[in-house]
Every structure is written in C-alpha cells, then in structure tokens.
Specification:
heterodimer; A: alpha/beta; Rossmann fold; 4-stranded antiparallel beta sheet; 6 helices; B: mainly alpha; MetI-like fold; 2 domains; two-stranded parallel ribbon; two-stranded antiparallel ribbon; 22 helices; about 0% strand; transport (chain A)
Amino acid sequence: MTSPFLNISHLSFQVPGESTSIFSHLSLEISEGEIVAIIGPSGSGKSSLLRIICGLTPASFGTVHLQGKDITNSAPHQRNIGMVFQGAFLFPHLTVSENVAYGLKMRKDSKESQAHRVNEMLNLVHMSDFSHRDVAHLSGGETTRVAIARALAPAPSLLLLDEPLTGLDEHLRIDLARELRVALTASRITAILVTHDRNEAAAIADRVVQFSDLIAHL
Amino acid sequence: MFVIWPTLVVLSRSFNRSSLFNVLSDSQLRQMLWFTTWQALLSTLGTLAIGLPAALVLSRYAFKSRQMIRALTFVPFVLPTVVVGIAFASLAPAQYQSGPLPLILAHIYLNIAVVVRVVGSRWEKLPTAFNDNAALLGATPFTNFRTITLPLLRSSIIGAGSIVFIFCFSTYGAARVLAGPRFPTIETEIYRYAFFLGNMPQASALVVWQLFVILLVLALTHRQKSISLAQQNLMPLSSERQTKRLFFSVAATLIAVGTLLPIAILFTDSLQSYEGFTFSYWATSDMWTSFFTSLSIALFAAVMALLFGTGSALAIAYSTRTRFHMFVQALTSLPIVISAVALGLGYLLAFRSDPVNWRGSIWLLPVAHSAVALPFVVRIITPAAREIQPELRENALLLGASPWEAWKSIDLRFLLRPLAIAASFAFTISLGEFGASSLLTRHGHETLAMRLGQLLSRPGEQLQKQAIASACLLAFSCIAIALIVEYAVQFNRKKRTQ
C-alpha cells in the first residue's frame, strides 16, 4: 500500500500558557493531486491547522508527513508548501510581476525562466495585462488572483488556501471560485482549502470534510 | 521673534568671509569638523546596529513586560546629555574615560529610543503575513529580512538615522564631559569661541557650517517614499517556538538592564565616599537651590512650549492649505536644525541693544528652553490632532454645541494624552538643557544642569561626587516625570474604558 501524499497524524495544538487545546488528535490523509476543502465555524482552529502544516506555527503534538517525509520540525522555507492567506498580503514594495517572481528568485531560477513562469502564471489567473502594476492599485479580486499566481509560481508540492475569497462580493466570489478550480486543476497541484462557505468548498474541491470530523473523539 | 530673529542675527554675523573660510583653512578647525562628522556617523551606525534589534524585540510580539520595557528605553532620551556623559565617564575604565569611544557609546545609549520609537512604530504595522509569505516562498530568515522587512522599513530607518546624526553632530553636554579638550566638537567650539575667546564672527561662522551640514543631511534624507501600513494586532510571543520565546525574553531583559545600569551605578557612586556609605553629597544646599531654580524655569518653559507648540500643531493639523502648514512646520522645526548653543548665541547677539536689550533678563533662559522644546511638542501633538475626524466635531455642532464647546468636548479629550506627554517632554528638556543655558544663565541663578557643569570643571573628589549626586537628581526627576505622566495616562484610559 502506498503512503498518502500528505499524512497528518494525531496533531494537537495548544497555545503555550493556556490550559485548553485548540484541537487535539486531528488526523487527515490526502492523495496526490487531490483538492480537499475543510469547512467549519470561525475559531475552530482551521487556520491554525494550515499554519502548522506549513511550519509557521509549531504543533504541540503529532506529526506531518509530506510525500513520505516527516516535515513536522522543518523550517517553513524548507517545506516547499505554498499558501494564500486571507487578505492576500502581496508585498507592497514590489510590482505584480515582482511579487509573482519572488518565489522563483528564492529558487534561484534564471531571469529568462522567471519571466517565462511569471507570464504563464499571470495568464493562468487572467492578470497578464497587470504585470507592471503597483499592487496598491489592484482591486480585491485582482489582489487575490495575483496572490494565487504568486503561490503557484514556484510549483509547491502542496498549496494551502486560507479563506482566500473572504471579503469579496458575492458575484466575484462565484467567478473566482470557478477560476481557482480551473487554475488548481491545470496546475495538477494538491491543495487544502479552508473556508466556512459550503458552496465555495463544493465549487473548488474534490472532497469536502468537516473540521470536527477530523478530530478523533477518544 | 525667539527663533528666527536670533538665527538671522547669528547668520548675518558670519558673513565675514574670512571667518567662514577660516574653518576650512585652519587645520585645527578642519580637524574638529572632521571629528564631529565621523563621530556622529559612527554613533548613528552604532545606534542603528543596537536600536534595530531592540526595535525588533519590542515591536514584533506581544508579551507581558513589553510596554514597560519600551517605556524604559525612552529614559535615556529624556536624560540630560551631560548626565549620560557623567554616567559613561564613571562607568569606563580610567584610560577610556574621555575620547571618541565613550562619546560614541554615550550617543548610542542616548539615541536608541529614537530608533525604537521611529522604526519600532513602523515595524509594529508590518503584518507578519508578509514575512510568512516570503518564508513559504523559500526565503531564508536573512533573505526574508533583506528582501521584505528592510525595504518596508527603509524610510523609517533613514528617518531615524538622520535624526540621530543631527543630534550627535550637535552634541554638547556629552561632548563637554566625554570628548575632552583633545577632541572638540563643533558645538563645544562654538561655545569656546563665543564665551571664552569672545570671537563672535568665528562662532557665527561655525554655526553656519553646522547648519550647512544639518541641512545637507536633511536634504539627502527627506522625502523617502513610504508605503502606508495599517496598525496590526501583535502576535502573542507565547504562541512561538520555545527558542524564539527564550531569545526574546533574554533580549528584553538585556534591554531593560542596559538602560538602567548606568543610572544605577551612578547612584551607588553618589552614596560612597572614602569613609564608606554617605548621604553627604545629597545634602548640599546649593544643589537643592539649583534644583528648585531648574524646576521653576522648566515649568515656565513647558507652559510656553505647550502654548506655542499646541497653537502651531493645531494650525498644521486643521489647515487645508499645504503651503501654509509646510511653512508652520518648517518654522517650528528650526530649533532642531539650529542647535541649542547656536540658539543661545543668537539670543546673546540679538537681545543686547535697545529696544530689545534683554541681556540678563530672568525670563530669557526659559524662553530659550521653550524654543528648544517647541519642535518636539509640535511633533507629538500634530499627528494626534490630525487623527481626530472632523465629522465628530461637526456632529457635536449639529447637536447644539458652540464651536468652543465642540472643540472642548471632542478635540481636547483626544488631545489630553499627547498634551500631557508633550508637557512632560518640554519640562524634562528644560530640566536637562545645557547648551543654551551655558550662554544665557545669570550668575546666582544657575540651573542644576549648569551647576553640574561647573562642578565637573573643578578638581577634587568632593566636587566630583557632588556633580554625580546632581546628575542622579536630574536623572531621577526626568524618570519620575516620565513615569507619572505614563501612569496618569494609563489611569485615565482605564477610567474611561470602565
């Protein structure tokens, strides 16, 4: 039997100094190329789970294996995991194309290869006309598109999406959810989407799971 | 009248070409100018090297004692420079008690607060998500700092650096105590030429050179493009990894200890004589007379600075005409550009003949102190006044309040905190003011800072210890005022939220 692409086992998270756990004994397995949506109410610990997977927050207990490798204690920059945060957080001192190229520069890609990949990614999210734009002048939807392109550009093994469409108006959310699904499928990337919107989850993901169902009730 | 006129008088005196160019042709003056510049440059780099990590520790994560330690870092900035000079002279081994090294270290100690405040306030607004994103895109911690943090902090680092450079370039109190006669600075030379040698044209020429360098620095560093960032909620340090928590705790403790250590050593020194423990250096009547003179002058100076400073700040904040508020801002910034000794020299030259013959007037010194404090008062009140939404005042007017009632019930309530901080700032600046006081103090009405300077210039263990006790008294007064205002503000805030 082959091991799952992402294997989260008995993960617990407790804020140091506080007596109660945010969650405990959380387990999840994801296959390669699968897009999984985790839904649950605000404050249940969905975002904390994503931060633990990508290494920004340490887990209190449990393990995270990616492609069979234990990454529980690896530094975030060594994990090759991309993330789109709620609010996008594009680097404000860089242009649209410089934002998308950031991860490629870190990978030390050649200038030509960077330019080619940036173009490809901006095309994918329909933002190729905006490459030299100052990110301060982008709308909410455009910002989200660039954030997705930036996260996908270095071809991460796993993409985490933390409520990426929150704060956008209804129509735009529906359109972007569709576009996001296309972009993720085209990239053949394994992804976890965290959201509280059931419709959004269904539009983007292959599989939708309730956050509470991931926790073993011992 | 009390800023521009004296400045113009000083400038007009220097248009004696030979004095002006003498600074370049005279090897000793040239050497002095070079020393002033490089010690200011090294002091600035040193302040940034220590201030940036301190700003990082105090502005990235929320932890229990953060606010208290942040307030502590401000203590050296309100301490009189001459007090810090004495503290560093008594801390250093005998062979390092004077010269460039202790002077640079004292400057670093004095100015760390500038970096912590200016850069720290910006750093607090930098969302951690920027660095998180960069890390996830493959940036190592160093690359992350270089490519994300540094560019976004650049404007504040350059701003803080230029302020520190100007302060260190115009050093006087610390330089008088620490640099020694072998290493004069431009400010001590202005004083020497004006006061001891009576060579006013040469003193004025040095003021012009000082102005030239300061304006050059301002011209090179102003108008830094800055991306606006909104206030962020700080992440709790407790949610970070243990190694990071340990690093931040140790660093925060070091900052607190490093801030208080020089004052604590100074205080224990003031209680020791050959015969052991003693309070005798604290019991001299001269010290307490000078202290009460200082308090009354500081009170007068603080009231004056607050009146003119608040008026100017409100004019800047309420004005919709850019040119007008730029003019007022430039006018009230003049005392930063023109140093305290130069201002004192301006007062000596400008107010010595009828109808403005005010030489020896008892009120001239507090007026000079208020002029020195004015830019700080304006800089504290203006941003707070700008943040008050005019709609609040308009609502009050629509609800039947008169313009005065509307201003009192809305604006004044928002301004109480900055007003209290500005008043305490002006008060402490006056308490420790040494530059203008050196030239304007009347015999028999010496402030504590002046008495301290006089004691230091005389030999003898007894007098040196009295100087140290005076320095402690000044330091404790400044700290007490800062703490009283901080707690009064906190208390008022708590009362309002209850």
